[in-house]
Amino acid sequence: MTHLAQYRRPFWNTQPGYRFDPYGSTQLRSPNEALIVVPQTLSEITGPAFGAAFVRQGDNDLTRVASADAIGERIIVSGRVLDENGRPVPDALIEIWQANAAGRYLHKRDQHDAPLDPNFRGEGRTVTDAQGRYQFKTIKPGAYPWGNHYNGWRPQHIHFSLFGRAYATRLVTQMYFPGDPLLEFDPIFQCIQDVKARNRLIATLDWETTVPEYALGYRFDIVLRGRNATPLE
Amino acid sequence: MLYPTTSQTVGPYLHIGLSGLNCADLTAGLPHLEATAIVIEGRVTDGQGNPVPDGMVELWQADARGVYRHPDDPGFASAESQSASFTGFGRVPTEPDGSFRFTTIKPGPVAGPDGSQQAPHLVVSLFMRGLLKHLSTRMYFPDETRANEQDWILSKVPAARRETLIAHDTGSGILRWNVVLQGSGETVFFDI
């Protein structure tokens, strides 16, 4: 058990720090002390294996609650979950949640004065297939104001939560939309120093998954940490 | 070579999409746990001691034998995965007062670095509005003084801060373990 393959640590400026003053909520919630670097043990290289049993048919369609269609622009969001070596990650559980077309979350604490849509669930889940592929049908979320700074508005985004093979590869992120003028003013998007890494959170318009006369497709590939080729001691 | 996708905060409305996997009682419906159920209670507070009401706590642990339900654990037999067995995964949202509560079992020791055995522990992840990437920490057990002293991971933690990772026995079958995000008594967080 001395030879466990470690998952690589991300290159430092491709991930946000814990404290980012323009995003006010980080100020009291970021540790002052430096994180303690430890090797990954059996506890970190294992992780919950959810698999397809945790997902029901239709869980990846957010547009239909009862019999009526959700309001807004229908979109197909799809992509692949890969590791750093470009290998597909099968059986990755993906959970998503988002605001509706008017920019309102289905949550009692969302006080934004925009209409709720009784036919929009705002949440879904799916599991990647053997090639690491996933797909959701949803509604393009609206932008909405938040009190972080004067006239602050969050760009349109979908929250993603992923479980890969190991606890070390756990990831929560957000998908943004191309051409959104709010991106350059959003401290949550801007918290990532490396511009290329930041821009990888923006989906691309995807004609392959676009359904004619029905829904535009957006592609969003997600990369989880990969293992070092050579096991470390 | 690709680069891992960047982390982002879960935001304030995380429960919308993540409640489907909520599991506060890891022992539910499992008759053969080979261990007594324990309750773990705690509270998450920020740098001013205020509760974090919009967070989520996830835990991952081995079973009473010290085996993770995962094919990369040499002790795991895949046939087991077909039957109802201890999953080792828990997830709860924090309450308005920042509190969380799990019912689970004490895990057995699992292999550590350099051929050592790790003291029984839970791996814990914290998510919340204002956290751009989740925090990783561990909870150790108060009745394992000797194993804790010999634990390879705990030995990397400055002695004065180790107690932030060890739960307190309240004497009524409940273990108390608070998480302090910042400042005095700040919990130790790990870069894994």
UniProtKB/TrEMBL annotation, chain A:
Question: What does UniProt list as this organism's lineage?
Answer: Bacteria, Pseudomonadati, Pseudomonadota, Betaproteobacteria, Burkholderiales
The record's keywords, sorted A to Z, are: Dioxygenase, Oxidoreductase
Q: Does the keyword Oxidoreductase apply?
A: yes
Oxidoreductase keyword on record: yes
Under PANTHER family, the record lists: DIOXYGENASE, PUTATIVE (AFU_ORTHOLOGUE AFUA_2G02910)-RELATED, INTRADIOL RING-CLEAVAGE DIOXYGENASES DOMAIN-CONTAINING PROTEIN
Q: What is its EC number?
A: 1.13.11.3
**What gene name is given for the protein in this entry?**
pcaH
- Looking at the record, the residues that make up the Intradiol ring-cleavage dioxygenases domain are 77-105
Query: What name does the UniProt record give this protein?
Result: Protocatechuate 3,4-dioxygenase subunit beta
UniProt-listed InterPro entries: Intradiol_dOase_C, Intradiol_dOase_core, Intradiol_RC_Dioxygenase, PCDO_beta_N, Protocat_dOase_b
What one GO molecular function would you report for this record?
Answer: protocatechuate 3,4-dioxygenase activity
| Matches recorded under Pfam families | Dioxygenase_C, PCDO_beta_N
Q: Which family does it belong to?
A: Belongs to the intradiol ring-cleavage dioxygenase family.
Automatic annotation (TrEMBL), chain B:
- Signal peptide (UniProt feature, chain positions): none
Q: Which PANTHER family match?
A: DIOXYGENASE, PUTATIVE (AFU_ORTHOLOGUE AFUA_2G02910)-RELATED, PROTOCATECHUATE 3,4-DIOXYGENASE ALPHA CHAIN
The family classification in the record reads: Belongs to the intradiol ring-cleavage dioxygenase family.
Pfam name, any one: Dioxygenase_C
Q: Which gene encodes it?
A: pcaG
| EC class name | oxidoreductase
**Chain segments annotated as coiled-coil in the UniProt record:** none
What UniProt keywords apply to this chain's record, in alphabetical order?
Dioxygenase, Oxidoreductase
A single GO molecular-function term is: protocatechuate 3,4-dioxygenase activity
Query: What is this protein's record name?
Result: Protocatechuate 3,4-dioxygenase subunit alpha
| Lineage: superkingdom | Bacteria
SUPFAM superfamilies the record matches: Aromatic compound dioxygenase
Q: Which Gene3D superfamilies match?
A: Aromatic compound dioxygenase
Q: Where is the Intradiol ring-cleavage dioxygenases domain?
A: 40-68
- Give its E.C. classification number: 1.13.11.3
